[in-house]
Amino acid sequence: MPELPEVAALVADLRPRLEGRAIVNAHLTAFSALKTFDPPLDAFRGLVVDGVDRHGKFLDIEAAGLHLVIHLSRAGWVRWKDAMPAKPPRPGGKGPLALRVVLDDDSGFDVTEAGTQKRLAVYAVRDPADVPGVARLGPDPLGPEFTREVFAQILRDAGRAQIKGVLRTQQTIAGIGNAYSDEILHVAKMSPFKPASAIEGDVVDELYAAIDSTLRDAMERSEGVAAAELKKEKKSAMRVHGRTGEACPVCGDTVAEVSFADSSLQYCPTCQTAGKKLADRRMSKLLK
């Protein structure tokens, strides 16, 4: 799933390509992806793109006061094309294409979604806050509003909730998902199951610093990387996420995994849990 660093890199890649160009057409091929009806997608025709931004994991393309907001969900992506096919895409096709945006120089981009679980979402709105997911976002972890004091209060308010879930909850902190929460907790040498309210004092500072350094390092690595290469770059730089069975780059222990119904987390037992293996939640349910 694209998270804050990848969406920020997409913004950096798309901004110089889109700003100042007029939208000739927006072809919707996956009808279930469009979550709004007013304004219609046709309203973007002829409008000049004024800016490209992000809100957490949401990509925001603004044109003359209208906003095309895209949430890529788990398997969505944006694919730039210097020259679009002359023939419009067929609506309702079975391929990965969900939306095609064509610009006035015949370039443009496709929004695609792999797999069978279609969760990608497209919103045409007058204000990004009209998108429920945007309106509910917590503070941006790289924004000035995300102070150490704000973070400490988030931990207190979360009570006994596990820190892995707290970091991933978009209403609490915007932009961090499954992958970077694993990476942040590895940098902070913290168990993903540690209760948020048990994180106090200097440990708050360490986790706060780990959030900042992990996300900023990822953004620096993505700087100048073309959109087509961002997924590969993200995967190659992971320390523990997606590396079950491999050696921890810090201590050499074997990276372990906890599986859930539709996701998993990875961690280093030596670095994060004092050598203790965490129970696999999926297997625990089967054994009850």
From TrEMBL:
PANTHER family: FORMAMIDOPYRIMIDINE-DNA GLYCOSYLASE (PTHR22993:SF9). Residues 239-273 form the FPG-type domain. It holds the Pfam family Fapy_DNA_glyco. This is Fpg/Nei family DNA glycosylase. GO terms for biological process: base-excision repair. It catalyses: Hydrolysis of DNA containing ring-opened 7-methylguanine residues, releasing 2,6-diamino-4-hydroxy-5-(N-methyl)formamidopyrimidine. It comes from the Bacteria. Keywords: DNA damage, DNA repair, DNA-binding, Glycosidase, Hydrolase, Lyase, Metal-binding, Multifunctional enzyme, Zinc, Zinc-finger. Gene3D superfamilies: 1.10.8.50, MutM-like, N-terminal. Residues 2-93 form the Formamidopyrimidine-DNA glycosylase catalytic domain. One of its GO terms (molecular function) is DNA-(apurinic or apyrimidinic site) endonuclease activity. Signal peptide: none annotated. Its cofactor is Zn(2+). PROSITE patterns: FPG_CAT, ZF_FPG_2. It comes from Solicola gregarius. Belongs to the FPG family.
